[in-house]
Design brief:
By secondary structure, the chain is α/β, with parallel strands linked by helices. The protein has two domains: 218 residues, 3-Layer(aba) Sandwich (Rossmann fold), CATH 3.40.50; 40 residues, no CATH class. 37% of the residues lie in helices and 28% in strands. The strands form three sheets. A six-stranded mixed β-sheet has the order 6-7-8-3-9-10, with helices on both faces. The chain has a four-stranded antiparallel β-sheet with strand order 2-1-4-5, with helices on one face. Strand 1 and strand 2 form a beta hairpin. The structure holds adenosine-5'-diphosphate. Adenosine-5'-diphosphate binds next to helix 1. One of its GO terms (cellular component) is membrane. It is a multi-pass membrane protein. This is ABC transporter ATP-binding protein. Pfam families: ABC_tran.
């Protein structure tokens, strides 16, 4: 099977600084892949290169079987893109935004009308079609962005920080929509985030990025197998030391065996712990 997305030794240099550094990665059709990393890690730049909005300085990128540099138009017809900044037109109505996008993609009128109706309905926006976008809440704007990104029937959806700035309830609703889209349409998805819960909830595989480099990748299960599922935390002055254990019960056994348990506790390990272990820093 041809990979949905493949990057081979990709570099992006801005002003003599390598912001994406030797990134190699393959995403299979139907996968939800999450790129997790702190601000400035190079996640958005990676998405911009994958979606033909920026060109790599070096390396090869193939999306839906097309070379992003040589076959940009074909790539664009195969992908849907939801960027961080809300890119819908605030002074147009919900319907007009969809209509405009549909025309840009040369979707014939009858199909365009039917698909706009279908996606607005799917995203729960049917009762807002005549409203100007500026009157929608942040969550509904994001849903409109997704509806619009899906209108030309892409096989791969790119989502750059899809839930940043949304309240927890709206975020969870969007997660459900994303997961449902993946399951019902078999759509490949690449999303970037700095919320570990987001990748834990949504992603089949995870890549952890830091300072332009992919420092770890695999399924959540694989990452836990490699780094540990249980943690003993030890307070040392104003900071914590972390000890990883293969399981939480082994972490508990270790704690039980300590003569002095002051300032010590155990808990399940999460992705943030793995990030801290790899980089010595927090995700935020
Ligand atoms: P992330 O999405 O992980 O927060 P970005 O890809 O936005 O990271 O940024 C990675 C680095 O590249 C940052 O240091 C940022 O300042 C820099 N960068 C991003 N876009 C540009 C640009 N157009 N020109 C110069 N530097 C940029």
């Amino acid at each position: 099977m041809v990979a949905a997305v493949s990057l081979a030794n990709v570099h992006k240099v801005y002003n003599n600084t390598c912001v994406v550094n030797d990134l190699s990665l393959t995403i299979e059709p139907g996968e939800i892949f999450g790129l997790l990393g702190p601000n400035g890690a190079g996640k958005s730049t990676t998405i911009r290169m994958l979606t033909t909005l920026a060109q790599q300085t070096q390396g090869d990128i193939v999306v839906a079987g097309y070379d992003v540099r040589l076959q940009a138009a074909q790539v664009r017809s195969e992908i849907g893109v939801v960027l961080q900044q809300v890119s819908v037109d605030m002074d147009m109505t919900v319907w007009e935004n969809m209509e405009f996008h549909g025309r840009m993609h040369h979707i014939p009128a009858a199909k365009r009308q039917a698909d706009i109706r279908r996606w607005l309905d799917y995203m729960g926006l049917s009762d807002r079609t005549s409203d100007k976008v500026k009157t929608l809440s942040g969550g509904l704007k994001r849903r409109l962005q997704i509806a619009r990104a899906l209108l030309h029937n892409p096989s791969i959806l790119f989502l750059d920080e899809p839930t940043v700035g949304l309240d927890p309830q709206t975020r969870r609703r969007l997660w459900e929509i994303i997961r449902e889209l993946n399951k019902s349409q078999g759509m490949t998805m690449l999303l970037t985030t700095h919320y570990m819960e987001e990748v834990e909830y949504l992603c089949d595989r995870i890549g952890i990025m830091d300072q332009g480099k992919l420092i770890e990748s695999g399924t959540l299960q694989e990452l836990h197998q490699k780094h540990g599922k249980g943690i003993v935390m030890k307070q040392k002055g104003d900071r914590w030391d972390y000890l990883f254990f293969p399981t939480l019960s082994e972490a508990n056994q270790y704690l039980d065996a300590q003569p002095d348990k002051t300032g010590m506790m155990t808990r399940p390990a999460n992705l943030e712990d793995i990030f801290v272990e790899l980089t010595g820093r927090n995700l935020d």
